[in-house]
Amino acid sequence: MSNNKIIDLFLNPKSVAVIGASKNPMKGGNRIVDNLVSNNFKGKIYPINPTSEGELFGLEFKKSVLDIEEEVDLAVFYVPNRAIPHILTECIQKGIKGAIIEASGFEEVGEKGLELRDQILKITDNFSKIRIMGPNCMGLTRIDGDSNGKDNAKGGLFTSFGVFYKYKTGNVAIISQSGMLNGGYLMYMMEKYPDLGIRYSCSIGNKMDLSEIEFLEYFIDDPTVNVIAVYLESFKDPRKFIELCKKARKIPNKTIILVKGGITSQGQKASLSHTGSLAENSQLIKAIIKQSSVIQARNFFELFQFARTFSMLYREKIIMPKQGNVALVAGSGGVGTISADLIVEYGLKFPNLDESIYNKLIEIFPEWMPPNRFALVDIWPAMEKAMMNEINPGNIVGSVYELLLNDDKIEGILNMMFCSSRFRTFNNYENVVDHINNHSKPIFFWLIGEIREIRKVSQLLNEHNIPNFPSLEDMIKNFWILVQDSKNKNKS
Amino acid sequence: MSNNKIIDLFLNPKSVAVIGASKNPMKGGNRIVDNLVSNNFKGKIYPINPTSEGELFGLEFKKSVLDIEEEVDLAVFYVPNRAIPHILTECIQKGIKGAIIEASGFEEVGEKGLELRDQILKITDNFSKIRIMGPNCMGLTRIDGDSNGKDNAKGGLFTSFGVFYKYKTGNVAIISQSGMLNGGYLMYMMEKYPDLGIRYSCSIGNKMDLSEIEFLEYFIDDPTVNVIAVYLESFKDPRKFIELCKKARKIPNKTIILVKGGITSQGQKASLSHTGSLAENSQLIKAIIKQSSVIQARNFFELFQFARTFSMLYREKIIMPKQGNVALVAGSGGVGTISADLIVEYGLKFPNLDESIYNKLIEIFPEWMPPNRFALVDIWPAMEKAMMNEINPGNIVGSVYELLLNDDKIEGILNMMFCSSRFRTFNNYENVVDHINNHSKPIFFWLIGEIREIRKVSQLLNEHNIPNFPSLEDMIKNFWILVQDSKNKNKS
Hints:
Two copies of one chain form a homodimer. By secondary structure, chain A is α/β, with parallel strands linked by helices. Chain A contains 17 helices and 19 strands.
């Protein structure tokens, strides 16, 4: 079977046996079946437990996979690791082609775990008889519909023992060696960024057999995926990884973001006790990351924030910046100064405005406070002038955007927006969104002000896929990664 | 008059004349009087406007300061800059000793502004007849009571034209060349961090006369101030600045945090059009910052986050870490790996546990998954063991803290806490807080989970001055600055 066919079997099985299914809602084997059923998995589900009788969520318990008459594509194991060899043998006998093993206690615990691994290698004949995802993982998730969609649009494949309750389908795929990114942290991020759409979430754990390589290859070819967010503690096959990243770079609407754990020796010690990953040479790690030319995130927060930014912009078919020429619109001089410093630090620049554009901009400003000749617009004096002339200051922002976006050099706009229910006249949000929707350059917002108003504005912007950030530096950094990605795409 | 006497006059005036007071609530001159009155300024307030009749908030309008019979300490100007020379002359004639000038249009607008400045220099005889704060500023604020305190505890001096509605008094003083940090952004931060107590907020603007130097000197001597948060676009007197910072280093419960704007040439161009600050040599800037050995923040968000951390720990008289030996408690191996990498990057370390401590820790853990020998505790297996033995897993966190804190080497604990209303048994928050309150080492939290639950837990921790953060790296960075500060304090 080709790699993509194997992964397809894992992501789109027609039938799933849940080994270790349980009536006890405190057990993971109960929650896996619950997740499959309540999220409308379209295929067959078989709860397996030799000591259980009757039904679970309306599905009849079987003692063993051998008691199932129909064909079974995938087995999800939620049993203690000692029970695995025997059950795996039965799965092979039944002709099941894929198994997800969620139990821990393998490479990461030393000798005993290694013995168990050797046993599995023998039983599966080096994974030629059945392919394995895990062990020490949180399963995989495929999201077809939104949790709050109309007509119960929920749908997909949910094999994690964590409970997913609020989610949205979208263009992001996750491959992670930390189950937290497929479980608790992912759920947190989906609540924090309710418009972040996730297509797949794959917890590869110790990657005894299947690894980042097979999933990466699949997602690069999958047109529903634009953004691939990866957390690795080790590289299974550095050469292949670099090759795949190179392939992804040739696809205009595909971006890979990587967090690499275990870069320092302290990190590698930690990783050994987590996924049993052996120490890698830190020079080699750096060389792999450099050659793969992926977007590197420093931590989980950045990973998801970057993924969200790319996800939003790809959905809106925004033209990505290539040179890093950006404009800033803010109502504070101090913000202008700090932004200018940060912009330089990130290798971006505020270009000088076209003469014709500047001549139009100057008209909006009072004589006593003309705008800068470079693309850093302190909009406050222009608003004051508008008010003096009894013009709605809320319209000024739109006019300034219009001018800046018409300057060919400027590849995007960064904005500070003060969100206040008392000063809504200064920020006609709907108007701003209309202006942005008519353009294909990225426009980012940093929101400050009243917390409640910020939430409201953020929600509005999210609905229109307009990236918005809680801090100035986050906004600048997220613009910078777009330029990074464009430069990477230009590499051979 | 000594510097401190002058600043005392500005911060604690017995009477204030508001020049440009207005009945129109859209005008700044109206809001200044409103802020003074509604926040219970204890001294006399005189609204001044040659074209107004009657009363404003129950206070009689005067045409000029010369019409006031009593002595006046301070004049707050909210008038167009052209009107300033004439009124300033009257203030001097009246014997007023201090003036806050909020209007802009001076050094930052070029030649005309410079002429106006020269005129003021002449009128004031180089500020010997009256001292000036500003121009181009948001005034100053002294907070004596909380906005939601009992028995209308509100109190202080509020001379900004921005409206302050939610605030708390505390041990932080702000000195800023960006009015935003004394206005909109400050209000945002006070809402975001409701337990962040602010003692003073001084907007020094173009610092034509009074600058960071005089305020810094005052706050270093003021025992109500522990943390001084500073934003500068230029150094008025580098030598004096370094000397004052050196003096502050000798005070155990005093920390200065600085954001310097205009470090790059692009930043300096921006700063010139903001506060008229002239370009400084970037090597020189670096040397000044290095010699002053203050905590440097990269941006406004960090400035306030760092200020909040120090503020909380000083209030609780926490023993600051000196070596950077820290422990991490988390329920995720991936977090452990990434934390270990970040810890190394910030120059901190997870020390090896004392043999006796380790021997006790190992008892809490299951045999199949013993803890690390170094201070990185993946607490999940211990919780699983507790549950198997029908012990409340919520008690495990407390026991682990107890052990770690008893290891003399360990100077503080970093925690990942998963906040979930469904899994409250795993985190007995009250219990955790009790444990922490019995210790004098810093204990930090990174909160993830259900947004609503995070807010609840964050509020509880805030009430006990326990620093908590929205991201892992923020948590680590904020621990790192404590170590930085201790090292700075050890310098001569």
